[in-house]
Request: fold
Amino acid sequence: MTTEQPHFNRVALIGVGLIGGSLARVIRSQKLADHVTAYSRRAKTRNRIKELGFVDVVADDAATAVADADLVVVSVPVSASASVAEAIGPHLAPGTIVTDTGSVKQAVIDAMSPHLPSQVHFVPGHPIAGTEHTGPDAGFDQLFEGRWCVLTPPEGTDATAISIVANMWRSAGSMVEQMSAPHHDMVLAITSHIPHLLAFNIVGTVAELEDQIKLEVVKYSAGGFRDFTRIAASDPEMWRDIFIENKEAVLEMLGRFSEDLAALQRAIRWDDADALETKFTKTRDIRRDIIDAKQA
Amino acid sequence: MTTEQPHFNRVALIGVGLIGGSLARVIRSQKLADHVTAYSRRAKTRNRIKELGFVDVVADDAATAVADADLVVVSVPVSASASVAEAIGPHLAPGTIVTDTGSVKQAVIDAMSPHLPSQVHFVPGHPIAGTEHTGPDAGFDQLFEGRWCVLTPPEGTDATAISIVANMWRSAGSMVEQMSAPHHDMVLAITSHIPHLLAFNIVGTVAELEDQIKLEVVKYSAGGFRDFTRIAASDPEMWRDIFIENKEAVLEMLGRFSEDLAALQRAIRWDDADALETKFTKTRDIRRDIIDAKQA
Reply:
């Protein structure tokens, strides 16, 4: 792969939330395209994008947005991938590169591929970056800096197209890796989906406590719970889709987690101090590995 | 309660890790005492405290450390509370204030009270502050700033003694609240103990994965897992004690958590998108409450 900065004539952004809105800002600040068209499903969001002014044109439908585009970036909740692909498929010019930013990859490939013409190059991608904020206002052009972006092109995908998409993400400051979609989905189930599920769940458990104790939990949240609430404040629609679309890997990892939790619970009940200390000492090593890997 | 800064003739610090070491620095920077003696169980730690030089004298045993002290602060793993109280009890002068910093309160009261003379004022306390680092080197005098400190004095505790301990923590920059020990233990089970248990558990699950996927989890940890590893890097010995000593509240909350998790798991398995979205939308509100309460 070369590392030279790509340049596009016309980019179409389908979906302009945190990710699409951040990429739009990168494209502008890095001068990656002559012209950027954006489309968002909600009229309210389209109006807001116009006000924010970080793209050239806001289209009223996806088909119009992709006309004459040489790059199309789809950044929508995973469950909307199929209908987006169906809407844009017939309007894509031969040779157009289509990429996406979905957090689950095999499901997106299954949903979009059937609707994309054979002369279009589909390079599925996942920038591992985000905040708990959503919508076009939340975007900023440093979101992807120093973050990984994983591409999961099916075998036989055009190498030049892969290289161009990779270089676009490198221009956004990301480090790019390539792997198979199923492998991506398993790794992300562990690093991201299960942690989010646990955070949603513990915060949900608290939401159902009596009001008085809930107030106190909020008041004294600094002890660990606060970190979970930040994670659990992520986009509900996006996460709903992730869990359903990556069901297999999530349920597999959740099974292992629950077994381990039952063992810990048993150790607590039976005062097994040694088992607890051994477990908690082991987990420190992983933190060290992460610090060594410069991800902390 | 008054808010005036207390002044002690002689302070004895029993246990000088992150908390004791931070408090020692506060006492020095805020000039809260004429003289500070410290004792730590490990000879290596005692030598390090001498090198760090933030106390006046390092004693070789707890009994010597507390002689003539008007304030004794016990900051040791909760399971060591009883033996510390037993060691210092006979050497405490009448009128001495004894406080502690344990993360569990009823168990500490049960462990220490029987060994403390009746003319000593015991004011159990818990500064809700910490980092994932341990030992006297990790301490710093801003650790308690803007944090809550909860005091759980049993009924009948001398009001002046409570007020003096409260003002010491206020001098460290903390906000002080008073509640019953069982109530503290339940609130902390939710805000801190269960989140830590989940973090230890998910990081433990990862620790047992095959090496190749473990490497990748570390590499792509930015997506949520990283926050858990920070929590799971906390002091193993301290947390071992917390779970065992606050068993009842922890198991009660863990039961609720596991029920809720089973429901979420079922929603994922059966593609119940509405249930997931409803749940994830609710959890956002708690985050807003915390931001409103200025704890985020």
About this structure: The longest helix of chain B spans residues 181-207. Chain B touches chain A through 91 residues (CB under 8 Å). The two ends of chain B are 28 Å apart (CA to CA).
